[in-house]
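Researcher: Structure for this, please.
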Amino acid sequence: MRIGVASVMQETNTFSVKPCQWQDFTTAVGEDAARRLQGTNSEFAGALEALSELGVEAVPVFYAWALPSGRVEREAFRRLESELARTLAGAGPLDGLVLSLHGAMATDDIDDADQALIETCRRLLGQIPIAVCLDLHANVTAGMIEAASLLIGYRTDPHVDMADTGQRIARLLVGLLQGTVKPTFALEKRAMIIPAEAMNTSTGVLAEIRRAADMLGLLDVSLFPVQPWLDVPEHGFGIVATADGDLQAAIDAAKSLADEVWNQRERFVVPRLVTAPEAYAMARSSSARPFLVAESADAPTAGAAGDSPAMVEAAVRYGDGLETMLTLVDPLAVARCHAAGAGANISTTVGAAMDQRYWHPFPLEGTVESVGAGEFKLEGVGYHGLEVSMGRWAVLRSRNVTVLVTERTVMSSDPSCFRHAGLDPFDTDVLVVKSCSDFRPNYLESEREAVTLDVPGAATPRLDRLLFKHGQRWTATGSAISPQM
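Model: Predicted structure, token format:
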């Protein structure tokens, strides 16, 4: 038995001004992909490991991964499709395929790019089983369900079970091929979106629904509370239930859980949002160090540009006496720092390099402490072992503020991005993370006192402020968002 493993991962925020280009993707093919992903917390690595344990010939095919951003440029997606098709054609005869996707990818001209990728594989592979695993924030559509032979998702938010998800889908696929199980699955959706900050699967209402799903005794139940900053058709909270040979059981389970989600909708609320002055007042009275301030509205892991200077300005105005550390995307400021060199004093502006709808570049005088570039591996729980790059970078210090300025978006929820630049994110009074929730497993001693900023941005938790064009959605503000024409 030969089973292929492929992965194309990108999450789209249609409210982001940052396009996703081909160069934003890390790609690998065949055995090189297997080597590079070995030991990582990824679906790709998890699937390969499980297939090997089951005595199946695992065939690594293609891997592509990019941080979330705006829509994928048309030509970049065409190239992704072409590479996926080319590598599948070169993989030899397959009995099945594990296909890892995000589930919320959109392009310049395709609203459901993940469905398009499944259909590309289907055209090439015929009727062999295609087993799809998705991010918990996927926008599962009827087209995905029709094109896939199996479909499951992560069980956790913050996400820590990527490799485990790859193992789960691989085992289900092998069971299907060997005839030991007969998976049949159903999708049920509700036209509602909730803030990412309300999706924790360890505590609160979603954890309760997760436990209820686990008590049903089905092969799999996946909750898809969906990425909220996505303006596409069929957008909403999804449940996919998979039963063993009993379609009606899957349908009933999905509907029952979706009804419960809807009935509990008023409980999906954002924890208290605070202003920057309030955040610094709370930091002064807290013993937690670092005191974590989540600027989720500008989170690159939610597709925002990562270039908001809001907390640079706030640190200067309100943070006197408190050491503050944060990241900021600004290629021009990086170029100025590199030109000046380490040790130089410079006067520059930082921030609003791509997105000037909410902020303007902030003037800053400081010392270039260091400059650098290169790739590094993520060390946090969620994406452990993945190799990433923030392009060229510079550490710029001004009074009580240390700014890691980068050319490319960076996962500031992971301590490794700071360490790559010679900084210790645990050795500061206030640490600003541009993240909704994925920082929490990486800062366990501080995360309970973390606060979320009330600032505008492409990944705002105030979903009622977004102008949608496709469909009506209920939000956790208690209102229905109608399409703006």
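Researcher: Any notable elements?
Model: The chain is about 25% helix and 25% strand. The mean pLDDT is 96.
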